[in-house]
């Protein structure tokens, strides 16, 4: 499991390992900030490794030219996600040592929906094409986030979808009126499923779902996939930022659980499962 931590300066990325998906041990820092780098001097968030995108899979990792490939994002200023993030690739043979590549995607100032900056990348391969999903924000003081995609044949030249953002904010009273973010896309038979989180204009973030017949077009379903928990639970404030895999016939839905109120909130990673817990 990749995970990012914020220490008051910015993000760095670690690795955790588990035998059962429930009990995790930290394996150490694998993608630290680099004070000598203009890009990574404050933030280094390794957010995704290329993997099998079938819904029933265990997210088996895939290699390109014999190596694993990950996607990072880096914010330019100290603090919590301060400034407009950039995205790039990183390469590894063992998950613990990463060679950092150049920037492949930065905010498009001509696209209002993403002019304020990019957020979490998610990389999959469909046929001979790589799909890089991401969410982004506008430049509003109380900004909105929506989700789009860029594609590439060679991981070097990227083309944004003309239909971006492919997942837009809902109406003012909807659960994703302000944020429709962090897309996690899988193929489910003849359908495509985009798990994402929504944030309303007032209230709590939760994980939602949109379905489509191809990896570019999605229609939202009305049901909440993972709702916030009752008062006193680990996810009483927010249950958001999905990551999914299937193991031993069960679908595991990992997400960021938030309890309490800012600035004294607590954040961690938890999991929901398709089969009830015994």
TrEMBL record:
InterPro entries: Glyco_hydro_32_N, Glyco_hydro_beta-prop_sf. Keywords: Glycosidase, Hydrolase. The keyword Thylakoid does not apply. Gene3D superfamilies: Glycosyl hydrolase domain, family 43 (2.115.10.20). The keyword Transcription regulation does not apply. Residues 63-193 form the Glycosyl hydrolase family 32 N-terminal domain. Pfam families: Glyco_hydro_32N. It comes from the Bacteria. PANTHER family: ARABINANASE_LEVANSUCRASE_INVERTASE, PTHR35279. Belongs to the glycosyl hydrolase 32 family. This is Glycosyl hydrolase family 32 N-terminal domain-containing protein. It comes from Rhizomicrobium electricum.
């Amino acid at each position: 499991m990749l995970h990012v931590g914020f220490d008051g300066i910015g993000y760095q990325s670690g690795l955790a390992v588990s035998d059962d998906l429930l009990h995790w041990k930290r394996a150490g820092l694998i993608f630290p900030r680099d004070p000598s780098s203009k890009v990574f001097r404050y933030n280094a968030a390794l957010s995704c490794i290329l993997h099998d995108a079938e819904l029933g899979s265990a997210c088996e990792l895939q290699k390109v030219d014999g190596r694993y490939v990950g996607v990072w994002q880096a914010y330019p200023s100290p603090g919590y996600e301060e400034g407009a993030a950039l995205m790039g690739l990183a390469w590894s043979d063992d998950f613990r040592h990463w060679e950092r590549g150049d920037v492949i995607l930065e905010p498009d100032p001509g696209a209002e929906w993403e002019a304020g900056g990019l957020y979490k990348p998610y990389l999959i391969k469909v046929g001979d094409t790589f799909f890089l999903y991401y969410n982004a924000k506008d430049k509003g003081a109380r900004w909105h986030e929506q989700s789009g995609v860029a594609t590439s044949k060679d991981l070097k030249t990227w083309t944004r979808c003309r239909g971006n953002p492919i997942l837009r904010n809902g109406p003012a009273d909807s659960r994703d009126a302000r944020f429709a973010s962090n897309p996690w896309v899988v193929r489910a038979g003849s359908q495509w499923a985009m798990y994402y989180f929504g944030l309303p204009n007032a209230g709590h973030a939760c994980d939602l779902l949109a379905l489509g017949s191809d990896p570019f077009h999605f229609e939202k379903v009305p049901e909440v996939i993972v709702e916030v928990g009752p008062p006193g639970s680990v996810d009483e404030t927010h249950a958001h930022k999905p990551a999914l895999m299937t193991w031993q016939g069960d679908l595991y839905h990992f997400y960021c659980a938030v309890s309490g109120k800012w600035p004294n909130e607590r954040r961690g990673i938890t999991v929901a499962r398709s089969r009830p817990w015994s």
